[in-house]
């Protein structure tokens, strides 16, 4: 009887997650190589077709956010679908995208004059299937405006990244909220130079998931997630989040900042 | 289909126009004058001055003797033409083919138009009454030939419709001048006692030709419909144009959208059959107060999708001022291109004919302005701020469509790859480098620290230098030595020294932020 109940509850939870747009465990096509970070999401899968919120402050954090977002984009833009980047001015330098194996021409930049225009463009773009990701640099946005964006993606299943200023942050209708800040670069085997870019990735909020923070580096081909003591948890060595998700998440969280 | 023409005669074109524009001088006798060999000569008279016996070509001084309060306005050459052109444009609401008949008339090709106004009588009356309401003293006539319509409008006392085949009868009582003949010829006819057309119309053409020449016969034949006569219409309408007039003036956005939907359906159907699509289209709205308002849309790729085009127009409809109401809509596709099947597939992940993204970009551009949608391409410039170039959606299509130039495309991509992998570039690049204060130990070593926006950054790690030369064929000056530096907190910057190292004199700049 008890097991029966547990099973029913589990199945209901799955249904709810499915209704909320989270993919079930079976669809693994969007694994970002973010191991434990992805494990923090429900079902252990990075949520697509939802709004992700990134807060940052200052040019350094903005650059770090651009870096992390570009890395995620490169993993999401695997088919021919383009990305639309809505920005008040050209902040992201297109040549930097090469580092993340993205063709510069694959991203369509839309330069807007006001936040109102940015919001309109973002909402219209989010409604349009055939786009991989819509990134919007919109510093100020209200809850109801973010709700409109969330409603748009629920229909079209396009993923939206909202980049906003740290100062103006308040609760939005997003599924996840991230804060990316720079960390000293990752140098392997005592090599000189600044090394691979590395960030402190904080998942401040994630609906139905487990927030946490991790050290993430971008190597030549993808993400590497680090323990805080500097030990490199290579992709292959990583405990498979799908096999033991609860252990995995708690284990990492205890290690984290 | 039988041709039908309307000739309109503005009996006092200039003075009527002047009075219309200056309503306060309505009661004064008015003439236009021009300086001819040091003498002011009257070139146009109003009805009132004409009634008083003042005629064109009379000296102003003589006229003033009769009429001391005469108001004289300077005549500018070609004024009639400008005026007739404007009136002709206005008449386009009644027929797409309207021509100017110098010096004081208009010709309208009314073939197949009259039934839209409920018959020829209504049609002609409407045009004449509307023009009269504007204050013009007009006469008009309708006939199968331009010549007859012209003759009847000028020499018959009333507005007349000449039924097809009755040209000869209509012309009979009119004077020979109604055949648009030269003065010398008219004088000759006068001498011979031919005061009316019926006096000579029954004579054999050969005899008339011997006496009065080829031109006379031509004019006669044209009036009778035996010789073809063409007119040169003003504002030749584009091929892809649709018109829709309405019985009642339209003021609401909803009604405009309905009209637009109808027009778009017709024009898109036409375009689809020809495999073409709209790049630029204009909706002209003729208002009942003689104003024309318009909205124009542009697309990123040729489109003949009525729903999509309507969406683009809908964004602009709020800018249309309907004023007292619109009674005619004209939709013109001013730029039309072939629809390429492959083009619709661009961007689509599945390869299906899904051009959602092109549509989206069109909508964005028409809402927030052309040029707001950009994509970037690597170009061969050393300096980072010049190394990317904006490309339009169209441009890359060209590159992609050039299937036979595959080698070239590959070459381009390889070059981009080389250019990029060897040289890391920052995620955030400042549009112009900003000067910073730097402490540098020895030449060609990365600095120890730098001060930016009042904060001191201690440099822990660094990469570089990467020397980027100035493109001397573009401008001259010092080269830049770039360093990627990281401070204690892990923040990465892109800084450079301008030129070679010089003790205490080197200029340093910050140019970007790395992730």
From TrEMBL, chain A:
InterPro entries, per the entry: P-loop_NTPase
Descriptive protein name: Protein ImuA
From TrEMBL, chain B:
Any single biological process term in GO: DNA repair
Pfam families on file: IMS
Signal peptide: none
InterPro entries per UniProt: DNA/RNA_pol_sf (IPR043502), Rev_trsase/Diguanyl_cyclase (IPR043128), SulA_CellDiv_inhibitor (IPR050356), UmuC (IPR001126)
Domain UmuC: 12-152
Similarity comment: family membership: Belongs to the DNA polymerase type-Y family.
The protein's name in its UniProt record: DNA polymerase Y family protein
Lineage: Bacteria, Pseudomonadati, Bacteroidota, Chitinophagia, Chitinophagales
């Amino acid at each position: 009887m008890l097991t029966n109940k547990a099973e029913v509850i589990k199945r209901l939870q799955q249904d709810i997650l499915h209704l909320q747009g989270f993919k079930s465990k079976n669809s693994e096509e969007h694994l970002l190589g973010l191991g434990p970070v992805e494990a923090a999401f429900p079902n252990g899968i990075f949520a697509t077709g939802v709004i992700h919120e990134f807060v940052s402050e200052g040019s350094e954090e903005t650059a770090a956010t651009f870096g992390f977002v570009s890395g995620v984009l490169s993993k999401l833009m695997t088919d021919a679908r383009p990305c639309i980047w809505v920005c008040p001015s050209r902040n992201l330098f297109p040549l930097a995208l090469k580092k993340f194996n993205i063709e510069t021409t694959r991203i369509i930049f839309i330069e807007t004059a006001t936040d109102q225009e940015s919001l309109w463009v973002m909402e219209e773009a989010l409604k349009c299937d055939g786009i991989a990701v819509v990134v919007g640099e919109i510093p100020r946005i209200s809850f109801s405006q973010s709700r409109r964006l969330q409603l748009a993606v629920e229909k079209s299943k396009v993923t939206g990244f909202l980049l906003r200023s740290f100062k103006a942050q308040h609760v939005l209708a997003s599924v996840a909220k991230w804060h990316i800040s720079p960390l000293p670069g990752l140098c392997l085997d005592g090599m000189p130079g600044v090394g691979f870019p590395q960030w402190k990735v904080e998942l401040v909020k994630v609906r139905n998931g487990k927030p946490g923070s991790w050290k993430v580096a971008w190597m030549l081909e993808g993400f590497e997630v680090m323990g805080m003591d500097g030990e490199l948890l290579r992709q292959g060595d990583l405990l498979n989040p799908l096999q033991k998700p609860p252990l995995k998440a708690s284990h990492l969280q205890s290690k984290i900042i | 289909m039988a041709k039908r023409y309307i000739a309109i005669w503005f009996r006092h074109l200039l003075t009527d126009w002047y009075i219309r524009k200056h309503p306060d001088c309505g009661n004064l006798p008015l003439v236009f004058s021009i300086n001819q060999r040091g003498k002011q000569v009257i070139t146009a008279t109003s009805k009132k001055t004409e009634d008083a016996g003042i005629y064109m070509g009379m000296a102003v001084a003589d006229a003033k003797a009769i009429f001391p309060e005469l108001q004289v306005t300077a005549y500018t050459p070609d004024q009639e033409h400008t005026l007739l052109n404007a009136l002709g444009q206005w008449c386009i609401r009644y027929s797409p083919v309207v021509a100017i008949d110098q010096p004081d008339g208009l010709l309208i090709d009314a073939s197949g138009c009259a039934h839209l106004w409920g018959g020829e009588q209504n049609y002609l009356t409407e045009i004449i009454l509307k023009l009269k309401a504007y204050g013009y003293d007009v006469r008009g006539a309708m006939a199968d030939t331009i010549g007859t319509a012209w003759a009847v409008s000028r020499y018959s006392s009333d507005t007349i419709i000449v039924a097809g085949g009755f040209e000869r009868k209509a012309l009979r009582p009119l004077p020979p001048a109604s055949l648009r003949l030269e003065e010398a010829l008219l004088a000759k006819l006068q001498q011979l006692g031919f005061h009316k057309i019926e006096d000579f119309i029954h004579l054999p053409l050969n005899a008339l030709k011997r006496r009065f020449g080829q031109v006379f016969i031509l004019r006669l034949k044209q009036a009778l419909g035996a010789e073809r006569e063409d007119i040169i219409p003003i504002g030749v309408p584009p091929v892809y144009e649709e018109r829709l007039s309405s019985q009642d003036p339209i003021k609401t956005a909803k009604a405009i959208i309905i009209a637009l939907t109808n027009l778009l359906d017709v024009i898109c159907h036409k375009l689809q059959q020809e495999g073409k699509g709209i790049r630029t289209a204009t909706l002209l709205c003729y208002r009942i107060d003689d104003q024309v308002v318009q909205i124009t849309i542009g697309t990123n790729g040729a489109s003949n999708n009525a729903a999509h085009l309507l969406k683009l127009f809908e964004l602009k409809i709020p800018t249309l001022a309907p004023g007292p109401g619109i009674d005619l809509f004209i939709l013109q596709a001013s730029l039309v291109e072939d629809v390429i099947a492959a083009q619709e597939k661009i961007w689509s992940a599945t390869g299906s004919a899904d051009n959602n993204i092109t549509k989206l970009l069109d909508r964005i551009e028409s809402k927030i302005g052309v040029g707001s949608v950009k994509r970037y391409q690597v170009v061969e410039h050393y300096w980072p701020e010049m190394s990317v170039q904006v490309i339009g959606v169209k441009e890359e299509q060209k590159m992609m469509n050039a299937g036979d130039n595959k080698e070239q495309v590959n070459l381009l991509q390889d070059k981009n790859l080389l250019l990029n992998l060897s040289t890391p570039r920052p995620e955030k690049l400042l549009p112009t480098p900003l000067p910073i204060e730097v402490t540098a130990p020895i030449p060609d070593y990365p600095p120890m620290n730098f001060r930016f926006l009042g904060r001191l950054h201690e440099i822990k790690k660094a990469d570089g230098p990467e020397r980027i030369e100035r493109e001397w064929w573009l401008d001259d000056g010092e080269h830049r030595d770039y360093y990627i530096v990281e401070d204690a907190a892990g923040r990465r910057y892109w800084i450079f020294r301008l030129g070679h190292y010089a003790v205490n004199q080197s200029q340093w700049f910050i140019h970007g932020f790395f992730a």
